[in-house]
Q: What sequence folds into this?
């Protein structure tokens, strides 16, 4: 297996017509003959500043690149930002200020579970475009958006969509007809379970599910129940600590089925806490990934090269900066499609729905016919360990399968 590390974006817990509850088309805001005003509210101070600062810096860098090249249809993009300190109440206040006082054309990089959750209904009523959410909450998952819902354009994986991808991977890799699922009774676990159930039904796969509390320190009962059903694969629908607890419990229960888990767990520190279990060879542990900076020959791809040429050098390897760059790219792609035509919320939404939008760092997102499920094109990583008994052990996620959409996975 050729090991090509993927840079992972792990941001997590982060129009139209009057009939949609928004402004009349002729009153669309934030657009002049030579400018377009957009904005967001994100944590650039406090505990989440290490996420918000590079995220917003990259958004600004992308807009600077576009503006230096003459803008879009002769318009420069101006970016307004407020610091909500990852607080939903502040986030709602600032979001309303952006929409009603600053009169932005769109929100770009709507940031964090607290703010996104607090403002979704408000923004739906307004009908203002929202491009990229720095969170994967299930409330964003919509397979048939209508009215003001069409203004929503999620990009990074939503838990529900990732659940579908994990089922497809288990089916393709293990020929799984029976899958065990350990999921947390929380937004991440419940969201992934929803997607798991959707895709399992479509493929005729039997599920054996066990719910656990996110803070449970003992998941032996759930693991034993899964082990007793002789499943072909196991999906651990949980993030970070509870996912580690579940995998340890599966190991102790004697599970030998391969395990699939979320992209938010694809960090070296996650493997470090499971080194014994992974190095045993009792099963393989896989995680999804949705950003790839390499081409098929192992060289940096064009999207990543452009990113590094335009962002501050301190952010060249920063996954949150990559996320911000991708957010800005998706927004600008809609503008490019509208081109010289009249720019309104309605025309922008229609343009985004015309064809799938290509992620400059791997995969596509399809918004056609009201589809609002974020990226469904993901890579597959395998957890690897080496020299764990030495003074310098290594823990890495190696590229096992390239970025593929569900249809390609199932071919």
A:
């Amino acid at each position: 297996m050729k090991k090509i590390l993927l840079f992972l974006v792990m941001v997590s817990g982060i129009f139209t017509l009057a009939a949609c509850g928004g402004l009349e088309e002729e009153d669309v805001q934030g657009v002049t003959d030579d400018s377009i005003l957009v904005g967001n509210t994100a944590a650039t101070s406090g505990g989440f500043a290490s996420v918000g600062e590079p995220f917003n810096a990259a958004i600004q860098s992308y807009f600077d690149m576009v503006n230096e090249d003459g803008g879009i249809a002769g318009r420069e993009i101006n970016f307004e930002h407020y610091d909500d300190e990852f607080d939903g109440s502040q986030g709602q206040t600032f979001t309303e200020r952006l929409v009603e006082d600053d009169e932005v054309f769109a929100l770009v990089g709507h940031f964090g579970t607290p703010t996104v959750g607090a403002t979704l209904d408000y923004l739906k009523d307004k009908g203002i475009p929202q491009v990229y959410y720095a969170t994967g909450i299930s409330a964003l998952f919509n397979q048939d958006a209508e009215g003001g819902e069409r203004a929503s354009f999620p990009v990074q994986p939503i838990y529900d969509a990732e659940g579908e991808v994990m089922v497809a991977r288990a089916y393709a890799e293990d020929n799984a007809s029976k899958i065990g699922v350990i999921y947390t009774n929380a937004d991440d676990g419940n969201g992934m379970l929803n997607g798991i159930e959707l895709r399992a039904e479509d493929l005729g796969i039997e599920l054996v599910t066990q719910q656990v509390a996110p803070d449970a320190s003992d998941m032996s009962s759930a693991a034993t129940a899964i082990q007793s059903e002789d499943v072909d694969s196991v999906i651990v629908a949980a993030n970070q600590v509870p996912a580690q607890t579940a995998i340890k419990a599966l190991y102790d229960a004697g599970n030998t089925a391969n395990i699939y888990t979320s992209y938010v767990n694809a960090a070296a520190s996650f493997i470090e806490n499971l080194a014994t279990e992974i190095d045993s060879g009792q099963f393989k542990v896989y995680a999804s990934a949705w950003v790839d900076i390499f081409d098929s020959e192992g060289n940096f791809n064009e999207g990543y090269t452009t990113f590094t040429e335009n962002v501050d050098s301190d952010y060249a390897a920063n996954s949150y900066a990559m996320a911000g760059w991708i957010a800005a790219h998706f927004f600008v792609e809609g503008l490019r499609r509208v081109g010289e035509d009249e720019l309104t919320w309605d025309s922008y939404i229609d343009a985004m729905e015309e064809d799938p939008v290509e992620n400059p760092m791997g995969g596509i997102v399809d918004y056609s016919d009201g589809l609002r499920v974020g990226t469904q094109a993901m890579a597959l990583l395998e957890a690897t360990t080496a020299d764990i008994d030495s003074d310098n052990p290594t823990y890495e996620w190696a590229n096992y399968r390239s970025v593929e959409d569900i249809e390609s996975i199932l071919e």
In short: The first helix runs from residue 49 to 68.
